[in-house]
Structures are given as C-alpha cells and as structure tokens.
Design goal:
With 369 residues, the chain is an alpha/beta fold. It has helices at residues 48-57, 72-86, 116-125, 127-145, 178-194, 225-232, 234-238, 265-275, 296-306, 318-327, 333-349, 355-368; strands at 35-39, 59-64, 93-95, 97-99, 102-103, 152-153, 198-199, 201-204, 220-221, 244-247, 251-252, 281-286, 310-313. 40% of the residues lie in helices and 12% in strands.
Length: 369
C-alpha cells in the first residue's frame, strides 16, 4: 500500500544456592507452560543463584539491559545460558533497542541507530521514503540482535506526544501526527518480523500525553475518551494484529480514574482488547517503575488479574524476583496460545538480509528525502 494513503494502515492477523521450587498461586508451571513473567538478570554473567532460581521459577523469558552487555561473544553466551537455565531453546530474550537514546547495545561493538523522530521528520517531506527507511532500519536492527540470541525488540513506540508532555517519550516517538506514527510503526514492526525478531508495540493505550516520567511517578491524563480514541489510540488500532504489546503505567481519568492502565481491567479489557482490538500477547511495562502503587508482588498479581498476559520485572534484583515469582502463576491458556502464535509468526516471517545493501538503502532514503 502507498505510504501516503489517507486511511490508517492495517495488517493481516497472524496465522493461526536456591534449588527449592518457587511456589505460586496456581502451582509451579509444567514443562510446556512457563510462568507468566519475564525477568532481568544482575550482570553480564549468570550467578549460580540466578541459574538455580530461573530453573525453579521457569519464567517465560528474559530481558537484557546495559549492565548485561559487553561484547557480542559475551551476550551470545549469556542468552544461551539463560535459555539453558529454563530448559527451553526458544525462550524469548528481549531488549529495548529502539535507536537514539534508548539503545542497550552501543558502539564500539554495535552500530548506532537513528531515533524514531528522524524518520518522522523525513515523513513530513516524503512519506514513502520515510517508510522505506524505517523498514530497512528495522531489518538492520534484527540483523544485529538475532545473531546474539535476542529474539524480541521492545519497539516500535506508537505513542503520540502532545504539547506539554514529558520528554520521557520525546524523540522516541515518530511524530505528533497519528497517521505518521501508524505508518512508520507498521513499517518498523514488519521490518523486525522480516528479520526474525518480534516487535512489541508500546505503550498501550498511549503514553504521549503523560506530563511526568512514569519511571518516577504516576502520570495522570485528563483527556476525554473521544480525544484519546481519535488521537492516542489510533496507531495502536492500526497495528492491533501485531503479536506483542506493552502496557502504559498511565492513569486515564476518562477511562478509569482509580487505576493506571497496567492494573486496570477496564482499560485493558474494554479499551485495549475491545475498542482498540489488540489481539496479541500483552506485557506489562517494568513493574519496578515507581508509577505503580504497592509492593512488587502486589503489582505483579494485580497486573495479571487486570488482564496482562506476562509481567515484566527488569532490575535483576534476586530478592524482588523471588517475590514476583511467588505472586505470578503459570501462563493462562489464552496467554500461552498468544505466545505460541507470536513465536510461530517470528519463525515463519524471517527472510535473508543483505546488511550492507540495507544500510546503504536506509541512508539513501534518509539523505535524499
């Protein structure tokens, strides 16, 4: 379809020394049904305690941060060790590699990637070139991540910033135009899939109006439901058949004045699932962020109860991870099926990549637009 199409783009739905077990409300997950959580780890090498804990807790997967990465060889060993700990060769390993200021893998061992806003600026002059550039960029991201054993990239950011919003999103967003965000986000997600890496659309149902940083406190958005549907939710609706999404730790007074989206069955059920129509597996944003109330285990339990499929705990604190594991059950039947669909989509979508050609094409599209 043309990048300059006047309608919001759509995509096709996918085809169909701690050796003791960690207790959970629903019992320990069986071998084919992991616990509904993704964990970080403390450093570049797994400790014996972490190995034992992960073997007992059996999380769905893992997420890497700057503290976990040193060299390509080290990261490849770490991702293999994480998977060995849980005994699943396809356990997902996630990373936030958006480009710009949000990049866990950096020079000299890995290339720099442009921030999302760079592509949005090109879109204002030439939408088709911007779409070509962002798709090639995502293919390059996937070609960087997959050889390391990283199979999920937490992007694209589909948030639409508004005047006065906090710069925690800032240039991580493609544009202030929902149409541009939808078209570029779609191309970015498809490029990752073509490279064999799963995209995560974030932050559902929209973080663009947040006036404070949700890492530090809870943003409250006073926009009307109609305004949210027309602007903030539009890119997510356009990408509603993507395999994975991530929630926003944001409270929307018009939707649920009492709870942030991550902990609200109303926001997740009525708006994310029904009105937006998001069909994929839903991760929480990091439970360690201070936007959420209560203890770490209360946050995890409440998020799963509200309708999140998988809790995300990122800071690598072993004591906190043990508490989260006690609060989170095995993945539910629907969540497990959503994950199977996502992983099947990743494996089917992968295409060969010519990295030099893709880099040259991306740069040409950015320079000549």
């Amino acid at each position: 379809m043309s990048a300059a199409s006047s309608s919001v783009p759509e995509v096709l739905a996918p085809e169909a020394a701690r050796p003791a077990p960690v207790p959970a409300r629903a019992g320990n997950p069986p071998a084919d049904n992991p616990r509904a959580v993704v964990f970080g780890c403390a450093g570049p090498v797994l400790s014996a305690a972490e190995r034992d804990f992960f073997a007992a807790a059996r999380p769905l997967g893992f997420i890497l941060f700057r503290r976990n990465v040193e060299t390509p060889e080290q990261v490849t060993r770490l991702t293999a060790d994480l998977r060995r700990a849980v005994g699943r060769s396809h356990a997902p390993v996630l990373v936030d590699q958006e480009g710009g200021r949000v990049a866990r893998l950096r020079p000299p061992h890995w290339p720099e990637f442009p921030a999302a806003r760079v592509f949005g600026e090109v879109w204002t002059r030439d939408p088709e070139r911007a779409v070509e550039a962002v798709r090639a960029n995502s293919r390059l991201l996937a070609a960087t991540l997959l050889p390391l054993g990283i199979t999920v990239d937490c992007m694209p950011v589909l948030d639409v910033p508004s005047p006065g919003s906090h710069d925690v999103i800032g240039d991580r967003a493609y544009s202030t135009d929902p149409m541009a965000v939808a078209q570029l986000g779609l191309a970015a997600a498809e490029g990752l899939l073509e490279g064999g890496v799963l995209p995560v659309v974030k932050h559902l149902p929209g973080h663009g109006r947040a006036g404070v940083d949700s890492h530090l406190e809870l943003p409250t958005v006073a926009a009307s439901e109609a305004d949210l549907m027309a602007r903030d939710f539009a890119p997510f609706r356009a990408l509603r058949y993507m395999p994975l999404g991530m929630t926003a730790h944001v409270r929307y007074l018009a939707l649920d004045a009492a709870r942030p989206a991550t902990l609200s069955s109303t926001v997740l059920g009525e708006f994310v699932r029904d009105r937006i129509g998001f069909a994929g597996l839903l991760f929480t944003d990091d439970l360690s962020m201070q936007a959420l109330p209560g203890s770490i285990e209360d946050r995890a339990e409440a998020a799963i109860a509200a309708g999140c499929d998988v809790a995300l705990h990122c800071n690598g604190d072993l004591g906190e991870m043990e508490r989260v594991a006690r609060a989170v059950p095995a993945m539910g039947r629907h969540a497990h099926r959503r994950w199977q669909i996502a992983e099947g989509m990743r494996q089917r979508s992968r295409q060969p990549a010519d990295v030099e050609r893709l880099a040259a094409w991306r740069d040409l599209m950015l320079v000549t637009a």
